[in-house]
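Exercise 3.2. Students should predict the tertiary structure of the chain below and write it as structure tokens, then compare their answer with the key that follows.

Predict this chain's 3D structure.
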Amino acid sequence: MKKLSVKKGSECMACLECVRACSEAFYKEFNQDLSCIQIVAKGSVAKPNTCIQCGKCMRACEHEAITQNPKTGVYMINKKKCVGCGKCVEACPMHVMVLKPEAPASKCIACGICVKACPMEILEIVEK
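Answer key:
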């Protein structure tokens, strides 16, 4: 299974370049709320929150709009089937699914755009 991961022992400086890259790739604008990667601060430590490809979004979708790619293991949203109900967003334990009003939901597809944008090189795409 292919997924986005944070390298062990890495420190995030919360520059938001990964967030910027993701939101601009999906929605052509920099908006933290439209990014499929989020930076969470716990005290003075910042940590990227990423999709763990757990499939809870797929199980929550009543419209069968989310399926797992058999080759990569990545859960993907069929934009034509998504009705924007938000049940997948509510089910996401990592809080990294996006639902923009009047648009289908979006989630991390392990594309690597955020990996390339991170100046600290703490993100990676891994095969599990």
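Discussion points: The mean pLDDT is 96. The beta strands are 2-6, 38-42, 45-49, 66-68, 75-77, 123-127.
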